[in-house]
Amino acid sequence: MVTKSYKAGAPEQYDPSQFPAFAVTVDVVILTMSDGVLHMLLVRRGETPFKGMWAIPGGFKRPNETLHEAARRELAEETGVDVPTLLTQFGAYGDPDRDPRMNVVTIGYLAVLREVGAIVAGTDAAEALLVPVADVLRGRLDLAFDHEQIVRDAIERVRTELEVTGIATAFVGQTFTLAELRAVYEGTWGVQLDAANFRRSVVAEDGWVIPTGRLAPPGPSGGRPAELYRAGKAWKHGGPIHRLKSTERKSRQ
Amino acid sequence: MVTKSYKAGAPEQYDPSQFPAFAVTVDVVILTMSDGVLHMLLVRRGETPFKGMWAIPGGFKRPNETLHEAARRELAEETGVDVPTLLTQFGAYGDPDRDPRMNVVTIGYLAVLREVGAIVAGTDAAEALLVPVADVLRGRLDLAFDHEQIVRDAIERVRTELEVTGIATAFVGQTFTLAELRAVYEGTWGVQLDAANFRRSVVAEDGWVIPTGRLAPPGPSGGRPAELYRAGKAWKHGGPIHRLKSTERKSRQ
DNA sequence: CCAAAAGTGTTATGTCTACACCCATGA
DNA sequence: TCATGGGTGTAGACATAACACTTTTGG
Predict the structure, then answer these.
(1) Shortest distance, CA B218 to any CA of chain A (angstroms)
(2) Which residues from 159-218 of A have any strand D atom under 7 Å from their CB?
(3) Optimal mutation site among A19, A191, A235, interface B, most CBs of chain B within 10 A
């Protein structure tokens, strides 16, 4: 592969002020599974505009960091989590009136955490809240800016990614039972999957889950102990689990 | 659905200069099928930086337009096409050193055109060129900025969209033969598909292609005239054509 | 007539879904 | 021993891939 001479153009006589200036922010939709229900993190805005309203965490991009680094920094500031199991960009939003103060273009990121951990309210947020995603999608919460649309896009993305990539394992721990993994699909898609067929599909796909040989203790109501797995490498064309096409089964939400 | 009071926050005492300023651009990867081969449009840069190098068309976002409008404007300026058959956002790029002049965040858009039409070289481009996408992916052309990466992401996106959405019909005319539609999949994925099975899959899926009853004239070398179809509505979960998993067939490129 | 391209039929193989059944545990 | 949840077996429905065959054109 040829290494490109990246700094070809001369940055000589050039006046940046002749181009319209924008503020660039990064907004992070932080998702986690809690009790089989997909949850997301909201923060209460401590500053104008939309002061006191719920919003998704975010902040201004700094000139010397990449977009991904900015997202990672915002995530760490808000949750204390330094290494998310997954952090993906999913969209950009730049409508002229989306921020009443000035022209702000924001880049949407999707973060997936295994556990909630200690959620730290940052300097510009008076409070933090973990809510079911379904509540936001139903419009029960009034979010600041165009954050409701951003959340909708993020959820649509995670639902698709679930079918196409290995994102599901980002929701569960280092080792997990297949019931836990199945709960990720069920909670995200709002469907019920047949446990038997789920197991076969997942185990059959090569390099997807790897048995550890250990067993998980059963729940308080008994039941056979489940085998513990760890995540394998991702795979070729899409994952082993797909949304039903014709025969839709009853939903849970 | 509840209408949100959008201008809630007061834009009062606020100093925009306290936040880092960025230029925001929109870059458009313009794709079209030509002779069964996926092509893209490049323009030669007429200005510094990277003056004289090939680049994908793009330009600065204006404060009073949306990102989508900016992409549409750039596309029209560069190609004369006002209404593309498809225009989708696929990514944002904001590495600190991606533009030697200043901090520029760019939003990548993917445009699909039916025909090339009259390609008009704009004011800031000395020349325009339609090249096979494969040439760019192989690194045969040295593109300005981080445009090679942007192109790679765009192609990856169009390949996925092809499997999941009705994007294929955006490449063909108002009416089309199934051979033309098949060429879109074959040219984009670099595979050969069985014509018989392709027909069955596409026709079987309800509301995907609609027969017009008319026939297309055969080519110069003869052959039975093909039936003409027009595009139907999109569908539920993904399109009818999928990349082969196990049995990979011989590629064409 | 032959070659070429479109369209139909057929068959073996693979995958998906539903659900019956067995297994290991807590109370 | 019963309830609960994990794991296996299996049969029918459905989808996929390969390819032989028929149809309709140009030369």
Answers:
(1) 36
(2) 177-179, 195-197, 199-200, 218
(3) A19
- Residue pLDDT tens, chain B, 253 long: 233 333 333 333 345 557 899 999 999 999 999 989 999 999 998 888 898 899 999 999 999 999 999 999 999 988 888 777 789 999 999 999 999 989 999 999 999 998 765 554 444 445 888 999 999 999 999 999 999 999 999 999 999 888 888 889 999 999 999 999 999 999 999 999 999 999 999 998 888 899 999 999 998 888 999 999 999 876 434 556 766 543 333 333 3
Q: Which residue of B has its CA nearest to A164?
A: B160
> Rounded CA gap, B121 and B124, in Å?
8
> What is the C-alpha separation between A144 and A53, in angstroms, rounded?
6
Which class would CATH give B165-251?
Answer: mainly alpha
Fold of A19-158: Nucleoside Triphosphate Pyrophosphohydrolase (3.90.79)
Question: A19-158 and A165-251 share one CATH topology?
Answer: no
Q: Alpha-carbon distance A106 to A86, whole Å?
A: 19
List the catalytic residues of A.
127
Cβ neighbors of A57 (< 8 A, separation 6 or more) are A27, A28, A30, A41, A43, A74, A75, A77, A78, A79, A122, A125
Question: In the sheet that B209-215 helps form, which strands lie side by side, from edge to edge?
Answer: B175-176, B227-231, B209-215
Distance CA A121, CA A41 (A): 11
Q: Residue ranges per domain, chain A?
A: 19-158, 165-251
Three-class SS state of B2: coil
Q: DSSP states of B57-110 as a string?
A: -EEEPPTTS-HHHHHHHHHHHHH--SS-SEEEEEEEE--TTSSSSS-EEEEEEE
For A130, other C-beta atoms within 10 Å of its C-beta total 13
Chain A residue numbers touching B22 (CB-CB < 8 A): 21-24, 61, 63, 105
- Residue among A40, A24, A21 nearest A32 (CA): A40
Closest chain A C-alpha to B235 CA, distance in angstroms: 11
pLDDT digits (tens, 9 = 90+) for A163-215: 888 889 999 999 999 999 999 999 999 999 999 999 999 998 888 899 999 99
